[in-house]
Specification:
Layout: H1 12-21, E1 24-31, H2 37-47, H3 53-66, H4 83-88, E2 95-100, E3 105-110, H5 118-125, E4 130-136, H6 143-154, E5 159-165, H7 174-190, E6 196-200, H8 224-230, E7 243-245, E8 248-253, E9 256-262, E10 267-268, E11 273-277, E12 281-290, E13 293-294, E14 298-299, E15 303-308, E16 319-322, E17 328-339, E18 350-355, E19 358-364, E20 369-371, E21 378-379, E22 389-402, E23 413-417, E24 424-433, H9 435-439, H10 449-456, E25 461-466, H11 473-486, E26 491-495, H12 496-499, H13 511-530, E27 534-538, H14 544-554, E28 559-565, H15 568-574, H16 579-584, E29 606-609, H17 615-628
Parallel strand pairs: 1-3, 1-4, 4-5, 5-6, 25-27, 25-28, 26-27, 28-29
Antiparallel strand pairs: 2-3, 7-16, 8-9, 9-15, 10-14, 11-12, 11-16, 12-13, 12-15, 17-22, 17-24, 18-19, 18-23, 19-22, 20-21, 20-22, 23-24
Helix pairs in contact: 11-17, 13-14
Length: 635
């Protein structure tokens, strides 16, 4: 016999209709390691009669074999599905479970407690309406408790349930509960968290989970399940102005063209006037199409296809909104970022930014501050590491229609993706657009790059020399410039050491400073290209991401990457500056090839092997390449 006995025959249609009409609460459980999150969810599943006989039999067998309760039912095993979790007794990944009672349906995310997996907790919190923060009554409020509370609040979760668990292990003492509650509420007040409910409980024994505990007669509040069944949920997005990010253009044949997506807020009817952003084009809705037929009205969270009265150019990533209350559009923002990458955030490094259905290249500028989750103090910092939270500016390579996160989660949030590994390394919330983004525009000039290039009788080009220190970049670049100069070409050589005497004298050699070093040089190279020059850039430029940024900034048709390829052993032998020797002794930190990596180009336009070519021969080969590609004027 199954544990789920709510339906035992009768009208199947009526039963299914009743289930369909129940409202849904999405919630998460979070807290520090071993606070009892998985046990709590297992207890909820068990007590709500959501286990079938085979599941119950498996739980009994697993409890005897893998459990930690002396052969008694170990409810944590219902959720800790990964072998690594069962072996270690901790939650690593986010586990989702669905269950229902007579009053409400639930989807719960059991999120990791260990600091290393905080990024997974943020993933589970992103769709939740309520968070259960578990606290071990023996330990009280911990750093991870504060971190998870802050992230939950940051992500807009308005209902917090503080389940002070394992009360059985502290003798069910009222003063223990009240002391922890006071500590937690003081912290919650410092971050503006509201709607807090504190419940003393024991997930293992079942105290105050489903039924009121006989061991804690001093507590007169709701049980955990009672609170979950009755807490008001739902944010009435339908009452807000209409917004829908375009997911794809639906064109099954030449007679129909519609724009598909999920409505983020508001309502829509045929005949409503809409505006497509960022283009600003206006039209009227003719049809709202779904798989089940046309709708007379669509509301928030519905997936629909909209057709317009006019032929408007719109594509994935654009946002359709009410014409009379359009979104803001900008490319620069103040944002709050939770860093989720194993490697630190590097201000100025190009990342891929995904917001809603829009994908754009972008950079995170220097941090304004990072947040200490224990004290909520704002601390100066140059970067963010795993699980750290900070505020910085975001600059995109194109316009984004947005709403502040506090107004709309869909249109006010984004993720940060590494361009080479395609892994998500951060999530962010938009505070507001930077005013200067709307006030600064390109000034049109009558004399442009093309006219300058004609005057100079050459094609503007950036020759980007990259390689290890001592590889011969500056020597070869100098010889190339001499040969070009003798041919009547107008050139300029930007050398790494020389630039650090002036433009970049304020930068050190940390990864973040190296990113900024290349960003500035790329901008100067772009200006020199616009001036019609052939620009030679001789920098170690150890990271692929920054070389790609330089290429995209200058323009791929005007950028030539030249890898001066020299082995580390050979570079050390040449060591005319004695830098490698100092680095080997630990006297130089972050030295490329020794204590900092060099990411060799994968597909450079030219690879110069200095083991087989002299500097003179290398320079001749580079000039020959430019002539063959038509980059030089005929002499």
């Amino acid at each position: 016999m199954t544990r789920f006995v709510e339906f035992q025959g009768g009208d199947v249609d009526a039963y299914l209709a009743a289930q369909e009409n129940k409202d849904l609460l999405r919630f998460i459980t979070c807290g520090s390691v071993d606070d009892g999150k998985s046990t709590l969810i297992g207890r909820l599943l068990y007590e709500s009669k959501m286990l079938f006989e085979d599941q119950l039999s498996a739980l009994e067998a697993d409890s005897k074999r893998l459990g930690t309760q002396g052969g008694n039912l170990d409810f944590a095993l219902l959720v800790d599905g990964l072998a690594a979790e069962r072996e270690q007794g901790i939650t690593i990944d986010v586990a989702y479970r669905a269950f229902a009672t007579s009053k409400r349906k639930f989807i719960v995310a059991d999120t990791p407690g260990h600091e290393q997996y905080t990024r997974n907790m943020a993933t589970g919190a992103s769709t939740a309406e309520l968070a259960i923060i578990l606290i071990d009554a023996r330990k009280g409020v911990l750093t991870q408790t504060r971190r998870h509370t802050f992230i939950a609040t940051l992500l807009g979760i308005k209902n917090l349930v503080v389940c002070i668990n394992k009360m059985d292990l502290v003798g069910y003492k009222r003063e223990t509960f009240e002391a922890i509650e006071a500590d937690y509420r003081a912290f919650a007040a410092s971050i503006g968290a509201k709607n807090i409910t504190c419940i003393p409980a024991s997930a293992l024994v079942g105290d105050n989970i489903i039924d009121r505990s006989a061991n804690m007669g001093w507590y007169q509040g709701a049980t955990l399940m009672g609170h979950l069944e009755t807490v008001p949920v739902g944010d009435d997005q339908s009452a807000k102005p209409f917004r829908m990010p375009v997911q794809w253009v639906n064109r099954p044949d030449q007679n129909f063209r519609g724009f598909a997506g999920t409505i983020a807020s508001g309502t829509l009817k045929p005949g409503d006037e809409i505006r497509v952003l960022p283009s600003g084009k206006i039209s009227k809705v003719t049809r709202i199409v779904t798989y089940d037929g046309d709708l007379s009205e669509a509301v928030a969270d519905q997936a629909v296809t909209i057709s317009f009265a006019d032929e408007i150019d719109a594509s994935r990533g654009d946002v359709i909104c009410a014409a009379k209350s359009p979104l803001e559009v900008s490319s620069q923002f103040e944002v709050e970022v939770l860093w989720m990458g194993d490697e630190a955030m590097l201000p100025g490094r190009p990342y891929v930014i995904k917001s809603g259905t829009k994908t754009l290249p972008g950079t995170l500028d220097k941090l304004k501050y990072k947040i200490n989750v224990n004290t909520m103090e704002h601390a100066a910092a140059e970067t963010l590491t795993l699980n750290e939270i900070g505020v910085c500016n975001l600059e995109l390579d194109g316009p984004l229609a947005f709403a502040p996160y506090t107004e709309n989660k869909t249109l006010g949030s984004f993720i940060v993706v590494d361009r080479f590994t395609n892994t998500t390394v951060g999530l962010g919330l938009i505070h507001f657009a930077l005013r200067r983004a709307a006030n600064i525009h390109w000034q049109a000039m009558d004399v442009n790059k093309s006219s300058r290039a004609v005057l100079l009788r050459q094609k503007p080009t950036v020759l980007w020399f990259t390689g290890l220190s001592g590889a011969g970049k500056s020597t070869i670049a100098n010889l190339v410039e001499k040969k070009l100069h003798s041919k009547g070409q107008l050139t300029y050589l930007l050398d790494g050491d020389n630039v650090r005497h002036g433009l970049n004298r304020d930068l050190g050699f940390t990864d973040a400073d190296r990113v900024e070093n290349i960003r500035r040089v790329a901008e100067v190279s772009k200006l020199m290209t616009d001036a019609g020059l052939i620009t030679l850039v001789s920098f170690i430029s150890p990271f692929r991401a920054e070389r790609l940024m330089a290429r995209e900034s200058v323009g791929k048709n005007e950028f030539v990457e030249i890898h001066i390829d020299t082995s580390l052993d050979e570079a050390e032998k040449r060591d005319v500056k004695g830098l490698y020797a100092k680095a080997r002794k630990g006297e130089l930190k972050n030295f490329t090839g020794i204590s900092s990596p060099y990411e060799a180009p994968e597909n450079p336009e030219l690879r110069i092997d200095t083991a087989n070519l002299s500097p003179e021969e290398a320079a001749t080969e580079i000039v020959k390449f430019l002539e063959q590609k038509g980059r030089l004027a005929a002499t």
